[in-house]
Amino acid sequence: MNIFIFGLVNSVILALIASGFALVYGVSRLANFAHGALYILVGFATWLFLNRLGINYIGSIFLSIVIVSIIGGAIYRFFLIRVKGMPASEIIASLSIGIAIMELFRWRGFIGEAYMLPPFVTGSVSIAGVMIDWQRLIIIGIGLAMMLSLWLFTHHTKVGLSLRAIAQDKRASMMSGIDPDRTAVIGLAMGSALAGVAAVVILPLGSITVETGYMVLTDAIAVCIIGGLGSWMGVLAGAFLLGFSQILATAFIGPHWQMVVVLLFIILTLILKPSGLLGRQKELEERV
Amino acid sequence: MSLPTVAFVLGLLIIPLAVTSMAWQKIIIIACIFAFLALSFDFLAHFVGIVCLGGAFFTGVGGYISGLLNSAFGLPLVITIPIATIGGGVICTLFLLPCLPMRGIYFAIVSLMYPLLFARVIQALNIFGGTDGLPGLATFPNIWVELYLILPLILILTFGLRRLVNEDFGMVLRAIKDNDQAVKASNINITWFKMKAVFLAAAIGCFSGAYLTHLYGWVGISLFALDFSIFPIAATVVGGVGTLVGPVIGALILTLFSEMLREFGPLRVVFYSLILAGLVILNTGGLVPYLQRKYHQFERWIEI
Predict the structure, then answer these.
(1) Among A2, A1, A44, A12, which residue's Cα sits nearest to residue A219?
(2) What range defines the domain where residue B267 resides?
């Protein structure tokens, strides 16, 4: 039971982290290596609004998510749009923008234990004999709500449908009058907002550090590779596979083996099924 | 040999004599180490079409192999550096092998992740000295050996790689970059060729890692630091992509620049990344192609 509950929490955390990356890649085939930087940017911005400017908690969360989604859109509109279609340049440009943001925080002295966001509800509750704090339950709740609302958004609104259209067939959707650049800006803004939601929900569990940014980036990429790049259900499947195996490894081998599990899963995925668990449609295209 | 070639060779050999202080000579050695990594990035990215963001992976593996051989078996550095170069190349190639048959961004993603993951694995499992690293390794006898071991190697490598990409082997690699389906249709095993190219680049990277280890007499997880991935790419973009001479010159310029910014400390990484992002987005050709163009204009300029 212990393993089941903490595995569920861990899987939802991974799914939340990876959904922003997967959305951006799915919409515009752009690997957003600034994902981790946007994640900690939200954490720090919320902390600043909360502790320096004295805005209340909910207000500062909304403010920082809005700001980071604007930043994400601006990164695409002003920088990445110039290297669109050149994968190497896209990766290098977004990675270097991300590193610039993260190292800027390191320089400003954002290191150490002092930077923590308070949990939404303190205290813990016992479920079937397992003590679990409320924040982790909130993570599960918000994670599932996010998945559901994303599904509703991409299936029942005009903007969401245009995002999916661009992801499926760019030329056909351009013929129906969907602007791919505008869609990509929306996609990156939404991806950043998803990173932001993940950040404000997950960061109260620990402290905000620059290393978290790199960790989030590698976790998001790992989940996306395992589940299949650009596949929605793949992200969920990958997150649950990775989340539960990390918890199993922690329980039966030792807490340090989480990273080895990630590494092993990536290598195995690439050898056995390079398109990922559920990434069917691109199998022929990706493989030489 | 044309004038620019002579100038490049002589310039590189004379620089250490021209600077007076030992600190600057050390800086030249660091620049050369970054030049190796930049060469390996340029070779992979612009002649094979593989974007490798994992320079730190190569330096880390090379450094740890030579460090472990030196501390555990007491082998002298004359033996450990070659073993680290070849063995590290093999290990890196094996780790990167699963993503070689794939097109697209897999190689970039995986090579970026490996150094981050390896550093954390070493930290978490507390193997190979854990967070503290392995101190007290063998160092070079004096600074002149350090300098005049690495400078001729840079020259050999630059001109060797330039020759290699114009040989039959290099032709196949460049064809893979341009049109892999056509190469496959010619009954050539793409993965095998890519593997050999990655081995070459990894061996170059591992050599620089091993060299750095014995330069400081210390190996630690800072060899997996992101600087070793991002700095060489920046050097390549500054010097000129796809020229093989450009990365060397770019590494020298950027190291000089980074020494001038020494008091900014961690902010230097921000500078490199901003320079890199700016140059990539503006799509400038780099320094060497610009100079080449100017030189050819000058050469054909006739007085009437």
Answers:
(1) A12
(2) 3-299
| Residue A254, pLDDT above cutoff 80 | no
Angstrom distance (rounded) from CA B246 to CA B41: 12
Quote the minimal CA–CA distance from A266 to chain B in Å: 8
CATH number at residue B238: 1.10.3470
In a domain, A287, yes or no: no
Q: Is the pLDDT of residue A259 over 90?
A: no
pLDDT digit string, tens, across residues B50-90:
888 888 999 999 999 998 898 888 888 888 899 999 999 99
Decide if B241 is inside a domain: yes
Residue type, B262: R
Q: Which of B102, B113, B276 sits opposite A286 (nearest CB)?
A: B102
Looking at the structure of chain A, the number of domains it has is 1
Query: Does residue A33 belong to the interface with chain B, where contact is any CB pair within 8 Å?
Result: yes
Residue B110 corresponds to which tokens in the numbers above? 């995986």
In a domain, A75, yes or no: yes
Q: Cβ(A228)–Cβ(A270) under 8 Å?
A: no
Quick one: what percent of chain B has pLDDT higher than 90?
Answer: 29
Contact B273 A270 (CB under 8 A): no
State both tokens at B113: 């992740």
Residue A284 has pLDDT above 50, yes or no: no
pLDDT score of B176 more than 50 = yes
Mutate to test the interface with B, among A75, A80, A92, A250 (most CBs of B within 10 A): A92
Distance from C-alpha of A77 to C-alpha of A65, rounded to nearest angstrom: 18
* Rg of chain B on CA atoms, in Å: 19
Pair of tokens at residue A115: 């930077």
Contact with chain B for residue A168, Cβ under 8 A: no
Q: Does B275 or B299 have the greater pLDDT score?
A: B275
**Strand ranges (E), B10-72:** none
Whether chain B has a CB inside 8 Å of the CB on A220: the answer is: no
Q: Does A81 touch chain B (CB under 8 A)?
A: no
Q: How far is CA B181 from its chain centroid?
A: 29
pLDDT of A134-154, one tens digit each?
888 888 888 889 888 888 888
pTM of the full structure:
0.87
- Which residues of chain A does B53 touch, with a Cβ-Cβ cutoff of 8 Å? 91-92, 95
Tokens for A271? 């050898």
Domain that residue A75 falls in: 2-121+135-279
The torsion angles phi and psi of B95, rounded to 5 degrees, stand at -65, -35
Tally the domains of chain B: 1
